[in-house]
Amino acid sequence: MKHMNSEVKEERTSNKKRIDLFLVPIVLIAAFLSLFKIWTDEYANAYYTAAVKSMLQSFHNFFYASFDPGGYVTIDKPPVVFWIQTISAKIFGFHGWSVILPQALAGIGSVLLLYVLIKRTFGVWAGRFAALAMALTPIVPAVSRTNNIDSMLVFTLLLATWMLFRAVRTVKFGWVLAAFAMIGVAFNMKMLQAYMVLPAFYVFYVVATKITWKKKIAFLTTATALMLAVSVSWAVVVDSTSADKRPYMGSSQTNSVLELAFGYNGINRLTGNTSVTGSSHKQPAQTEQQTASSETKQNSNSSADSSQSSNQRKSSFSQKMQAPGGGNQNGMFNTGNPGPFRLFQKGLSDQISWLLPFVIFSIVGLFAGVKFKGPYTAKQKESLFWLAWLLPVAVFFSIAGFFHQYYLIMLAPPIAAFAGAGAVALWSMYKQHNDWKSWLLPGGILTTAALQVYIMSPYVSSIGVAPIAGVGALGVILALVLAIRKQRKNSLTNYLGAAAMVVLLAMPAYWAMTPIIYGGNSMLPSAGPDSSSGMGGPPSTATNSKQSGFNGMQPPGSSSGNSSSNNQMQPPSGSSNSGQMQMPGGSSNNSQMPNSFSSKSSSSKRKSGGMNAEVNQKLLNYLTKNNTGEKYLFATTDSTSAAPYIIKTGKPVMAMGGFSGSDPILTVSKLKAMIKKGEVKYFYLSGMGKGGQSDVITWIKENSKEIPSSKWQSTSSSAQQGPSGNGTLYEITLK
């Protein structure tokens, strides 16, 4: 106990010392990568931005995280991050940057937290290098520059880690409760993804805490119960509320938060069963690994024929999507083939794996000489914590049926921690030992440089040969020179070691800057020369920035003008939702995505919020002028068409089938009742409905009056053919 008290006094003394001047530039780098030019992103991820616009309008919408101002359907995630975004928008005004700001600050905060966590045990240089590695891990700033949840999630989990470490040092039960309660808060950010760190928390507390086994079990049991209570608190309140007094829980099939948490946003991510169709059909794992790239030419001035489109989809399902570097790569959204080396495959390795070989060598060094029965040093105990975070998460991403590239930010903290702690440990072994341990540093440098050459090689047309050859040559030379000069204690050797670390971080630093250089994608954030596409491969050439990527998708009611063709990417074969692609926010989407993306946006304000991230002003003017008191400006099948109009006007727009159009929210009888009450009369439809919505769409078409396109359809020549062809505006009035 005296030892524990001395540690606490030492911590308080160290906290009073002046700021680490080496940390300042690291924080500035993190701030630049996370904040610079976020003000150019007008919509951010439009699905989530629309929810913030709606949540600003009433406490009812705020509490339930309603997607639309009318409180019809929620977004498909818990509300905590969006509560924070809404508060930010309330303080700074509603802008794209104001909803991104909390995530950007969380990204910077994660760098600082990792520095604090590593510095205390492994030393100040380990903390500095870990913080720098975290800041320069490409996927970290890519996600932090958007209003997606993951950056805030990681910050919260690192805060929980700080509480756990403090609980072990002080042997105070209150800090244990706080740490596990914080995981419960993280659950209310992104559900089961927050629980990925639990193995690390349990293992570390059991191994590191110097109390009796009886107390360990009692403390962990109580803390776990508190975590579960905090986790399900919001879900229980929502699920206990009458369905007619709250919005429908988006992307669930039973209007339940718990079903969403443990099903679609939980186990189904591992199995790949992410189809949201209102049926029990399970999407086969092999289907998730088949995507298509077909160039479908459509007449620019006419609506796409639905039967022809269906045939085109079926014929293209069996094709595989072109992978980064031009090779065939299985896996939806370039997440690779499940297997032990998945994190080294194209599309994932350039987001997170730049330092993985060095991390492996670091783990070997940090655990060298450890005996199973102990005793363990503080460094070994904390190394065990980071290993217990790294391995389960890495295994998940190696076998999971479905995830997006930006989920990989969950691996950034343990990788950065081992990079920092390992750099100092391997350097010490290199200088002080003459056995196999002294070879770990040169070996780590050599293999890491080799992997980085492999990661960059598919991008030779984008970045040139020089940086690839430079990293490879310098890595080999520095590793060989260090091997030759082993155990020579002079300044030249120190400079060589520092130079090696600079070489290993040079290309991750460039990759981390690509969302700024080339433009980012707020819906599917990723890093690399193709960062504006969000698809994780080398950029293809686009004819112009407005006819590429999500930005160029046609808003409801826009004709394609002079554009003559579309390159479209089709969904996987065998999907129960024909024509759907899995999109952020969680579910599939009926919109077809163009296959060409621009590397830079020509406009000062990027509307990169996803499909249809534009407003057709002529349609908006028509709907506003002819609204006779209806609650909803108009109704449409899914959120991608509705979101920009909610953001632009703040008025309710009904996404009848939720995010993807597949939620079984509406029935024909419910819709009739809404129309009779004067809640909605205009419907913008493009194609047939999905899942439980097909009967509703059919009824609308059979009982409505079609509005002539000349009254509302834009003829802008800058817009491409929109999702599923040009839509149709209908009007229904029932007495």
How would you characterize the overall build of this protein?
With 735 residues, the protein is mainly alpha-helical. The chain has 27 helices and 9 strands. A 5-stranded mixed β-sheet has the order 6-5-7-9-8, sandwiched between helices. Strands 1-4 form a two-stranded antiparallel ribbon. α17 (356-366) crosses α19 (412-432) and α18 packs across α19. The radius of gyration is 27 Å and the shape is globular. The N and C termini lie far apart (79 Å). Mean pLDDT is 81; it is low at 1-5, 276-330, 537-553, 559-603 and 717-725.
Beta-strand percentage range = under 5%
Radius of gyration: 27 Å
The largest β sheet comes out as: 5 strands, mixed
Could you estimate the helical fraction of the residues in percent?
A: 40-55%
* Beta strands, count: 9
- How many DSSP helices? 27
Give the N-terminus to C-terminus distance in angstroms. 79 Å
Read across the widest sheet, the strand sequence of neighbours is 6-5-7-9-8
What spatial form do the alpha-carbon principal axes imply? globular
Structural class estimated from helices and strands:
mainly alpha
Write down the oligomeric state: single chain
* Low-confidence segments: 1-5, 276-330, 537-553, 559-603, 717-725
Average pLDDT, to the nearest integer? 81
